Amino acid sequence: MMDIGTSKAATAAEREPLLSIKGLKTHFATRAGIVKAVDGVDIELGRGEILGLVGESGSGKSITGFSILGLIDPPGRIADGSITYDGRDLVSMGEEARRQLRGNDIAMIFQDPSMTLNPVLRIDTQMIETVQAHENVGTNEARQRARGALVQVGIPSADERLRAYPYELSGGMRQRIAIAIALINRPKLIIADEPTTALDVSIQGQIIHEVKKLCRQTGTALIWITHDLAVVAGLADRIAVMYAGRIVETGRTSDVIERPLHPYTKGLIDSVPSPATRGRRLHQIKGMTPSLLNLPQGCAFRERCEKATPECLVAPEPTLLSGGRSVRCWNPAL
């Protein structure tokens, strides 16, 4: 019989977020000054949840992902904040312990599969090494795990692919293999950094469908980093919109897509082609993303915003709303 106290403790642990980021600041020291790539980010991710982290290039999305994995090299550093994964503090964690987490509990899918795949090693060699780096298993068992992972992501002729070198495969196939490598050790969290951007639309759709299905089947949580709201609309449970190093809006995907609150989010959505906008000029957000070396006073979006007021000269704090929504704006579309 299960002990009631143990059962309650397990239930409480399951309710705790798998990942909790509070006040994260990741800065880079340059000769021109301090680049505040991530400047006070708060994110919570539940077990098995899919979060879409959306924003323009240079908004700090990828640096947020790299910060979670401890992949920030000098002159970059985490200047402030906390990153808690499954009850463990990742910021203060030693490098050896962090290395054991990477590829095992937490995996990453990069935009370019060549960052995952070694061009001079066969696919089976790389996948077997990935398993044996974290588990004491024989080569045959590791090979079967590798084969199963390829089948899991929809790769035909898995045995043939295992014997291939990366250069013998198409870009879409290499990316599927990179996803299989991320999944092979059954991680609790995957961070995907725009992994389908360079692929054909048809291949992109297949990979997104497979990743979503696999997350649902395995209970793996996912952070999907992208500049394309249309991609995460059918993938993510929640969306966090990032601008100039900060999260400006979060909420359930349907809420954010159907009723954006922040002017920047609305601008992103209005710039996506849809049947409703056929034949009409697409909306364009005026201006450019500000330099992270020299952010404008107050709200970083102020100089591009059509709703800016004198109040925006003071940087707004996030406002928590009903339904788990949050917005960082003085004049949201409430």
UniProtKB/TrEMBL annotation:
It is a peripheral membrane protein. Residues 21-269 form the ABC transporter domain. InterPro entries: AAA+_ATPase, ABC_Ni/Peptide_Import, ABC_transporter-like_ATP-bd, ABC_transporter-like_CS, Oligopep_ABC_C, P-loop_NTPase. GO terms for molecular function: ATP binding. Its main location: membrane. SMART domains: AAA (SM00382). It is found in: Cell inner membrane. Keywords: ATP-binding, Cell membrane, Membrane, Nucleotide-binding, Transport. Pfam families: ABC_tran, oligo_HPY. Belongs to the ABC transporter superfamily. This is ABC transporter ATP-binding protein. The lineage of its organism: Bacteria, Pseudomonadati, Pseudomonadota, Alphaproteobacteria, Hyphomicrobiales.
